[in-house]
Specification:
Layout: H1 3-15, H2 18-25, H3 29-43, E1 48-51, E2 54-57, H4 59-81, E3 90-97, H5 98-115, E4 119-126, H6 128-137, E5 142-145, E6 154-168, E7 182-185, H7 189-198, E8 207-209, H8 212-222, E9 225-229, H9 230-238, E10 243-244, E11 251-260, H10 267-284
Parallel strand pairs: 3-4, 3-5, 7-8, 7-9
Antiparallel strand pairs: 1-2, 5-11, 6-9, 6-10, 6-11
């Protein structure tokens, strides 16, 4: 199966540009044209119209697009299913938001292994956009993320939310927090926007990072103030290494389970969703 023809078609359907698709796939434009011609010949239909304004799917191309996405997903799943580690009955590829992996991954995997001891796990901490792309292509089976990217082939479920607390090496009062000593956080697009709206004067911070662990490292290394994930904030303030900024607003980040829409009702994925949601349900009840 020439999956590169499908990959080329889907990339071109998204980019609408032979030049951009060639750059992204690191091949020449003539290679893109040859692949498209081969696919059109195999299907017996023209898939794209080219004009000065760009490249657009034909009616036949629009009809083929959902089938192409499914073919790519099935191909990657098939490749994974025949490369199961020795001694394992199944292989599940799990993606998890970078910020969640250090704190919640252990309990999630322990419970999953208790229920499915013959299933091997491949685990990839990552960011939401990449995990959505990997779920679409069949590289991942299931993911826990901050920012769902709507797509007709993806299914998302809300698991709850996670609190972030402001901590500091310098002060316990919000009025004393200085922008030039603040570590701004962009853990997700929604979190960044909420952060900007609630604490607009802190957007002048010279440093902005996308992981709670990085905020902690910067605070302990150079001092200052910033938001960190709740369990870490409690641990470091209890140990006296950082001070809670008691009157600062608590910022909450929604957490979602994500999977290909074909898997939304399978017993394995339903169980994964329940296991992944337990830490956040427990915190909601605190």
């Amino acid at each position: 199966m020439q999956i590169d023809l499908i990959d080329t078609f889907l990339d071109l359907a998204e980019s609408r540009s032979f030049h951009r698709t060639a750059e992204r796939m690191r091949v020449t434009q003539s290679t893109i044209s040859a692949r498209l011609q081969a696919l059109e010949t195999a299907l017996g239909a023209r898939l794209f119209d080219r004009s000065r304004s760009g490249t657009a799917l034909t009616t036949e191309g629009k009809r083929f697009e959902p089938h192409a996405r499914m073919l790519r997903h099935e191909w990657n799943e098939a490749r994974r299913r025949i490369t199961i580690p020795s001694g394992a009955g199944h292989l599940v590829r799990l993606g998890i938001q970078n910020d969640l992996s250090a704190i919640f991954l252990g309990d999630l995997v322990a419970e999953f292994r208790r229920l499915y001891p013959e299933t091997a796990l491949y685990i990839e901490p990552d960011y939401s956009n990449q995990m959505c792309a990997d779920l679409l292509s069949g590289i991942l089976d299931f993911a826990v993320m901050f920012s769902p990217k709507p797509h007709p082939d993806l299914h998302f479920e809300s698991l709850g939310d996670l609190a972030y607390h402001m901590v500091s090496t310098e002060t316990d009062r919000l009025e004393n927090v200085r922008p030039e000593r603040f570590i701004f956080s962009h853990f997700s697009t929604a979190f960044e926007e909420m952060h900007r709206q609630i604490t607009p004067w802190l957007t002048a911070s010279p440093i902005s990072v996308g992981q709670s662990g990085s905020v902690v490292s910067l605070l302990l290394g150079m001092g200052g103030t910033g938001y960190v994930i709740e369990p870490t904030a409690k641990e470091l303030t209890t140990a006296g290494r950082l001070r809670p900024v008691a009157d600062a607003p608590v910022l909450r980040q929604p957490v979602y389970a994500a999977m290909h829409i074909r898997h939304r009702i399978t017993p394995l994925h339903r169980k994964l969703s329940r296991i992944a949601g337990r830490p956040f349900a427990a915190r909601a009840g605190d």
